[in-house]
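User: Can you write out an input/output pair for a complex, sequences first and structure second?

Assistant: Here is one pair. Inputs:
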Amino acid sequence: MEHVADPLTKQTSALRTQSESIAFAVMILALIVAPFMIYPLFLMQAMCFALFACAFNLLVGYVGLLSFGHALYFGWASYLSAYSAKAWGFPPELAILTGTATAAVFGLVAGSLAIRRQGIYFAMITLALAQMMYFFALQANFTGGEDGIQAVPRGRLFGIFDLKNDLTIYAFVLLIFIGGFSFIHRIIHSPFGEVLKAIRENETRAISLGYKTDRYKLVAFVLSATLAGLAGATKAIVLQLASLTDVNWPMSGEVVLMTLVGGLGTIFGPVVGAFIILLMQFKLAPIGEWVLVIQGAIFVACVLLFRRGVVGEVAKLLKIRL
Amino acid sequence: MFEIFGIPSAALFGQLLIGLINGSFYALLSLGLAVIFGMLNIINFSHGAQYMLGAFAAYLLLQYSGLGYWPALIIAPLIVGITGIIIERVFLQWLYKLDHLYGLLLTFGLALIFEGVTRNYFGSAGLPYTVPESLQGGRNLGFMFLPNYRAWVIAASLVVCFGTWFIIERTRLGAYLRAATENPTLVRAFGINVPRMITLTYGLGVALAAFAGVMAAPIYNVSPQMGSELIIVVFAVVVIGGMGSILGAILTGFGLGVIEGLTKVFFPEASNTVIFVIMAIVLLVRPAGLFGRRT
């Protein structure tokens, strides 16, 4: 489908792409400088979660499908990545690939079930399927049950770069993050992405225009699950740990929260949201269970008071797209 | 005692009983979810947390005012119901015009708040709540031992479920409710206060959850996470049954409870996941759910 733009949108779209590129450049610069000022392990974890949130946002923000079970892909990718690195001695790049592929397969199966129902049922189905896989992770032998898989070796990337060096692994994670982020950006702005947005706005209309919307939804679901898996698999190598926390339902809730705080359906929102929520968790760790209460309160506040999220509000204020 | 498929009858019927008990909670909770969804167009994620609050209310009533099980069975749902009314007025009423997903997100936030607060004050370990004296003990039925309290839970939830069905399907109030679900604007034009009905529906649905919570207190321990574990299973139950039919919700709830109980006997490893597997199969065979209308 050829998109016919009137002059007005053409003008603003020039400004829009500019604002996106500027924000992208700022983000990259900040992430390059940051490890010299901030604890690199925190930054790497934040980047993994940012990618996770971006992958989740691809589905909820651009197709309008709220998955409440994205911990499944993140967590199982994390397990497979950790297990293949530790038990089979896979190098990090292969371990991450193994985890990501696992997430893709699970995404294909869960996605083809979940898209059979619309709206609110979709959220319930994804949550239930994720809970099922949580129980499998709890019972399976290779996941190590309550202990998880600990002391995962970081190994040597391509047999050359020693990832035990904090800056080397930081560069590696940064590359993965930028790669994943750019890929999502590319999807959103492709003709395929335009169809996804059309489905979000009015699925019946998209069907009547001849699009097989189920197929589009499934592809989007698998892409989202795969990228969530990439984030989880990378996280397992970075933190050298895969555990039940990654695969349990609060993790699914957390990624929703990150995206909501940053801004649903904005490109940079999930990144900002992930950094905010992780920072909050680090700062508030001493007060224990109150973190849960604060997270709940943020949910309520976001839904009632600022549904656009941080980035969405900024973009609206400056009249640009981010 | 005799054996069925090599399994002692006491074990088989014991698990069947547990299945029926779990099933009564599935039925009560999915019923509340369906009623709330019908009127408010919101999936009440905090339903599990409100079930948990019911159990905690019963526990606190006993600890601090010496009120036992029977008064708690009335007072705890009343308290939680009133908080539900406040929640609807303060939070939910602003969401009706928005996408469904915001209702889910907001009530998810509320569930986190409830769970976090109770964890702070009571810890994650379960608190015991004793079976009321009048229902202690049990009887031997020949093929199994039936504790009185469990028999009471099944009977009471059956009565409450069918009572709810009767009110909604067979009374004038229920007719208003069904009409308002179909077309609120038109019902308002007839001079019926629909917003107030919505508020009360939420209060009632939540009170139903709290009622289930009080009944659950002597069976399971009273713990902050008792609701979140249950609500996810109840979501699967709702997906299987569909929310279009009240009787469907009740039947699905009890039926799945029994299947889960039987799985515990014959294939214990799968007992946690069997309901989710059934959900997947139902989605493949009958995507609209067993009693659902195609949406």
